[in-house]
Request: fold
Amino acid sequence: MTLESPLIAILVLGLGLAFIFGAVAQRLRISPIVGYLLAGVAIGPFTPGFVADSSLAPQLADVGIILLMFGVGLHFSLKDLFSLGRIVVPGAILQIVVATALGMSLAWWMGWGIGAGLVFGLSLAIGSTVVLTRALNDRHVMDTPRGHLAVGWLIVQDLVTVLALVLLPPLAGLLRADVNGAPIPEAVDFATLAETLAVTLGLFGIFIALMLIVGKRAIPAFLHYVAHTGSRELFRLAVLSVALGVAFIAAQLFGVSFALGAFFGGLVLSESELSQRAAEESLPLRDAFAVLFFVSVGMLFNPAVLLTETWPLLGTLAVVTIGNAGAVFLILRMFGRTTSDAVLIAVGLAQIGEFSFILSDLGIDLDVLPERARNLILGASILSIFLNPALFALADRLKARLEPRKTRAQTLEGRKHEAIPQSALKDHAVLIGYGRVGQLVGEDLVRGGWPLVVIEDAIDVVENLRAGGVEVISGNAADERVMRGANIAEARLLVVAIPNGFEAGQIAEQARRINPNIETIARAHFDAEVDYLKRHGANEVIMGEREIARAMMEYARVRKTSTVAAPQPEPG
Ligand code: AMP
Reply:
């Protein structure tokens, strides 16, 4: 069955099914990504029923990649990028060499020639932007040094892919082989090859220089100008135009990939915190498009290869997961990074996606790679994305063994799968969220002599608190087990210092159910939230905006009565 309007069909069915399957996955406590992939398989051409337009889905997914990488660039600074270069450039190149060699061995076992092996191996070495950024965001490590290291690694992989894509056509003659795998002798024009390489690197250099010299001034200035029009809608449009425009120009004029182009677009905005925040708020579409990425990968997958190509597929999957992760882990340890950093980045890169599809498609078009490679690469991609969340959980257990100082329950990334520690405190205060509000409250509670347990979701905050000797339960307080871990049943005071009113209401209600006598104080931003929280069991609700107004009024009142000159605002 096909429908009149393929774009709408894909948006409605793709997003709708992704939502349903994702929600089911969430309920079963597996990653929603698995649900999105299965939604793709369901509307793909290899399963009965509705078949969505399979040329549209990858284009929508590209929009997702552009917005994602633009957002990633926003959180990077040029300084980070330069300081990372010393590790990620040699590290990623070495990892690509190792994974390519493993892929070539597998290809040799399947009877393919050296050229086919080379392209096949390279396709297995390059991770997917979407999967990695999702994993980093889910674990709240995108804005941390190790998150940056992982993204830097990916950027080098992306650059290598761009080079491989331009070098493949002139080298195709050399890499082609006959059916028995023997190379077909064909002369290679080394002058053309050198020229292609020089042009590609030259264009890339010009693009970077333009972005850093012109873009770095022009883009923030443009956004500031638009901000002054006072129209939020125009501002959002401007941000979207910059993100998509830079990526498009990068790809069309400079031969740089969409992902790299968008990354640099975000990067030049990152130096100004204001434009960074504003731009960040203007990308609400990003997540929906990123979901379409997974749907589009699922659509390409033919489940039959699981049966027809079982062993080669398992071999390919092993290279992608064990090969890549092992290489990244060892290389990072060699560079002196901690086991915990190395594990996080290694597992994050133990998957393949969009770059591998582009590379293998080109290889097949040029007759370098056999058609059979397509299914193996797609199959390994979907399986590696499918397995990625589980690998994180597994790695976490291994890490707990490797780092005997930490008890298993204390390790963070796999906390959903681990026992939640149990607080032994009684008559204590439980503080939820240790951000801008929670930190101030927490410090004061401790000063006031309260025994304190903090519940916090962000891994880095948890680690800092632990280092400072504060008792913390890591996880989402809306999860009853996490609340019980803080021994809410015997607590006296609950302070809910998180910004989301709905979540706070759920937490307050749950706490009241477990401990009817607990005193709860919560935080809100709107009148409706205040009512909601009170109805759900909060004794006192502090509305942030009202307190800000109160402090401002107080300031104005004091100014009116005092004769002392007001402090001068800081320049800038
Ligand atoms: P802020 O808005 O700066 O006060 O930060 C809020 C803090 O609360 C952040 O550190 C979040 O990681 C944390 N947080 C938000 N929601 C939850 C939740 N449901 N459970 C635990 N921590 C949370």
